[in-house]
Recover the amino acids of this structure.
């Protein structure tokens, strides 16, 4: 294969990876909106438990036939799978839903924008992988775009942001996601996307089950309304199955550091979803902020044209 063909293939693969990562952020933007909407209907542990139980049931027909031939790989990586289930399934989203009960969506989005920083730190501490100057520059550019949206292009508005008690839970969730994303690249190659996600979904449900039982004993569950049930199905199907399959595949191609910067797309998508579903008016500062976010993502993730 010629140098030009190799470069073209690598570019195509990266473009595919970033399409998957962008799609996962779109699904997750909907999850943050849904989680905030369901804050009074479900306890955070209860919502997370049902989310991943339903996701496991959806994945089961695709994953179970392949499990028999992967017993050795599963045994070898049992500890890794358990840690991924703890950080990415049980811990991260429970903390996010807990935070969304007592903080505003604006604050949650702002704190979620710190995720790439935590992913850089986790990559360094676990893999000894350092962030590049381009990645750091891109992160700062994207953060500037997020601040444009949050401040409505008036920096004085940032001084009026009030932090709530739930902000601490959101912030605690970020290192958990960083650890998950870094370790996800270590998954055995024999385990396909559906099988891998099914295994950590089941493990996550088992980890959540004791806390779910305690919550149910304290507050007996009630039958959800149609809208509440639809919200749970969304977070199970789109934000769990769809988003995690896309994210895991994208991370496997470009690495956790690079993938982490696409998380800055989440507030951009969240702004668009707010306009579509909440009737908010698109204004100039929205366009400026989203354009700046996208510029930062491009700067941080653009590959070198040189091949090693």
């Amino acid at each position: 294969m010629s140098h030009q063909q190799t470069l073209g293939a690598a570019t195509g693969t990266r473009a595919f990876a970033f399409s998957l990562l962008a799609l996962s952020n779109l699904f997750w933007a909907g999850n943050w909106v849904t989680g905030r909407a369901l804050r009074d209907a479900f306890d955070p542990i209860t919502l997370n438990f049902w989310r991943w139980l339903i996701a496991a049931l959806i994945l089961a027909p695709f994953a179970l036939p392949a499990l028999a031939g992967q017993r050795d790989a599963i045994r070898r990586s049992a500890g890794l799978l358990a840690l991924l289930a703890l950080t990415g399934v049980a811990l991260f989203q429970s903390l996010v839903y807990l935070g969304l009960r007592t903080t505003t969506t604006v604050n949650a989005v702002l704190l979620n924008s710190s995720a790439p920083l935590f992913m850089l730190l986790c990559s360094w501490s676990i893999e000894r992988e350092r962030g590049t100057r381009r990645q750091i520059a891109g992160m700062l550019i994207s953060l500037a775009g997020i601040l444009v949206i949050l401040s409505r292009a008036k920096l004085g508005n940032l001084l009026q942001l009030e932090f709530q008690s739930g902000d601490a839970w959101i912030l605690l969730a970020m290192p958990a996601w960083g650890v998950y994303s870094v370790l996800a690249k270590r998954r055995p190659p024999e385990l396909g996307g559906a099988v891998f996600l099914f295994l950590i979904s089941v493990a996550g449900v088992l980890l959540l089950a004791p806390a779910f039982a305690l919550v149910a004993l304290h507050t007996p569950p009630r039958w959800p309304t149609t809208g509440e049930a639809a919200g749970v199905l969304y977070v199970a199907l789109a934000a769990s199955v769809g988003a995690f399959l896309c994210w895991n595949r994208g991370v496997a191609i470009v690495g956790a550091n690079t993938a982490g910067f696409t998380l800055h797309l989440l507030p951009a998508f969240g702004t668009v979803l707010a306009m579509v579903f909440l009737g908010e008016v698109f204004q100039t500062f929205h366009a400026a902020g989203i354009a700046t976010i996208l510029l930062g993502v491009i700067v941080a993730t653009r590959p070198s044209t040189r091949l090693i």
